[in-house]
Amino acid sequence: MLDVARHFMPKEFVLRLIDLLAVHRLNRLHLHLTDDQGWRLQIKRYPLLTEVSGEHYTQEDIREIVSYAADRFVTIVPEIEMPGHAQAAIAAYPWLGNQPSRHLPVWDSWGISPHVFNLEEATIGFCREVLDEVMDLFPGEYVHLGGDECPADEWERGEAALRRIAELGLPGPDAARAWFIATAGAYVTSRGRRPIHWYDGPGGAPGVTAMTWLDHESGPRAALEGFDVVLAPHTSTYFDYPADAPGPHGRVLSLADVYGFRPPPAPEGATGRILGVQCQLWTEYMPTPEHVEAMAFPRLCAFAEVAWGTAGDYRDFLHRLTPHLESLGVRPGPVIP
Question: 295 with 258: CB under 8 angstroms?
Fold first, then answer.
């Protein structure tokens, strides 16, 4: 996964990353296209989304990226965040928010914004119309709906939100996020695609594939709850964590840590539910392609062997790594035995 919402990554770098994924036989590139800090995909029905965010991909850019990837057997998975991580969209169209008369800026901080989509049918309609354009651009099987880190405070305090929650028969504001993702997910399914969401724990959206990021145990647990699962535990797959010393998150993810990750199998009773694994490049603290490349490599090389089940002796991997990195022509971060 490449986060292009927090810091935009030029099309040329995305194409280069696709080449590097193909070398390692990594067959999905998940693009995190929207967040509180930016909306990076042109949506023709809603032009203000990109006008308020600045740098973005045109639909022609996306067609080029998708075609380039397909020629290299890589499928692009688009992500449109909802109902949280949505401040950039609300900045463009205030009626999407819980205080429609308030004009918010695109967020210029990191963390979790308290400003989330409202629960009105018009906002669900907005999401459907956006997803229509997204699915027309991205022909792959999966569409990611975000769905994580969505504070319910605005829904708890808002009369309109509480009235809507009652109309929907939901037990309370905390249930609204799952309802929102399940509703959007049903629409994606009706278009013949498979929706995914970030799984924050029990109470996830039914019928929507779970991308489990909290810990190593949440993947098997979600599988037992009936979800199809993509494993993405942050302690083994978040490459925004530095490899050599604690960074802004206070965490370290060394090359050896990545190589030592052993994805758990599906537990008894959930055979076939674990679909695969994914590593993540969140870009809050990676403002340039050079930063992203240094954080991705050499750990992406280790992850590829983990993902395909070929990781073996770490010393042998290190012996093979130096000539491999030279052949790639990348500018890697630290290699620490």
Answer: no
Query: Measured at the alpha carbon of residue 103, what is the angle toward residues 99 and 108, in degrees to the nearest 5?
Result: 110
| Catalytic site positions | 35, 85, 149
Segment 77-93 mean pLDDT: 98
Q: Encode burial over 180-191: b for 16+ CB neighbours within 10 A, e otherwise.
A: bbbbbbebbeee
Q: How far is CA 130 from the centre of its chain?
A: 17
Kindly state the tokens that stand for 227. Answer: 């979800």
Burial of 319 (0-12, 13-18, 19+ CB in 10 A): exposed
pLDDT band at 337 (very low <50, low <70, confident <90, very high): low
For residue 266, give the DSSP letter: P
Residue 271: in which H helix or E strand, if any?
none
- Whether the CB-CB separation of 53 and 106 falls below 8 Å is answered with yes
pLDDT digits (tens, 9 = 90+) for 118-169: 999 999 999 999 999 999 999 999 999 999 999 999 999 999 999 999 999 9
- Predicted structure pTM score: 0.97
CA triplet 1, 27, 40: central angle to 5 degrees?
Answer: 35
Alpha-carbon torsion angle 66, 228, 270, 231, nearest 10: 70
Q: Helix (H, G, I), strand (E, B), or coil: what is residue 317?
A: helix
